[in-house]
Write a structure and sequence with these properties.
- By secondary structure, the protein is of the alpha/beta class.
- It has one domain (6-195): 2-enoyl-CoA Hydratase, Chain A, domain 1.
- It has 9 helices and 10 strands.
- It has helices spanning 30-44, 68-72, 76-94, 111-118, 145-153, 155-164, 170-175, 188-200, 204-208; strands at residues 6-11, 14-19, 51-56, 61-63, 100-104, 107-109, 121-125, 129-131, 167-169, 181-183.
- A 6-stranded mixed beta sheet has the order 1-2-3-5-7-10, with helices on both faces. A 4-stranded mixed beta sheet has the order 4-6-8-9.
- A hairpin with a 2-residue loop joins strand 1 and strand 2.
- Helix 4 (111-118) crosses helix 5 and helix 5 crosses helix 6.
- The radius of gyration is 16 Å and the shape is globular.
- The two termini are 28 Å apart.
- The mean pLDDT is 94.
Length: 209
Amino acid sequence: MAYKNLLYEIKEKTGIITINRPQVLNVLNAETVEELASLIEEIKSDPSVLTVIITGAGDRAFAAGADIKEIMALTPSSAQAYLRRGHDMLNSIEMLGKPVIAAINGFCLGGGCELALACHIRIASQNASFGLPEINLGIIPGYGGTLRLPRTVGRGKALEMILTGEIISSTEAQRISLVTRIVKQETLMSEAQMLAGTISKRGPVVYAH
């Protein structure tokens, strides 16, 4: 299946998903969320794919958040459906049954940070930055970040990030265990692929359950 906002390829049993909207910092609009949901279902049923990498096109952003223009145009009823679809898509990543690695380059903010949190392992380039700045718009993270961030970094630090909208560096993200390793921008994908390859050689039945 062809996708408008995503690139997808399989390399050595690893499915590589690239959010391909670099002109808008890979912002997650509704169409992109739908495409991600569809692609994750495709991967789930493909026995040739044992691991997955999600990354963003270009070197400026993994995903710089949700589409603010879309959010501001929502009505109360349409907002509920919009958020539910995002929740369902991220849940499908978390429950895929195949290890998903976020290879994070540049901005990883808002919905983009929530996407990374749904992945099982996160590695970042030196220029990556992280945050949930929704508070600056008078809203809270809507894709499950208020649950996944505390589970990852602890309740206190999560509350601090959510309530202040603080943007942190990759170094700080590693210190609080938001990411497991930091690599050079130019080696990010090769490092992610090596990690995925190592995992693929282990027991898929184990990590599927």
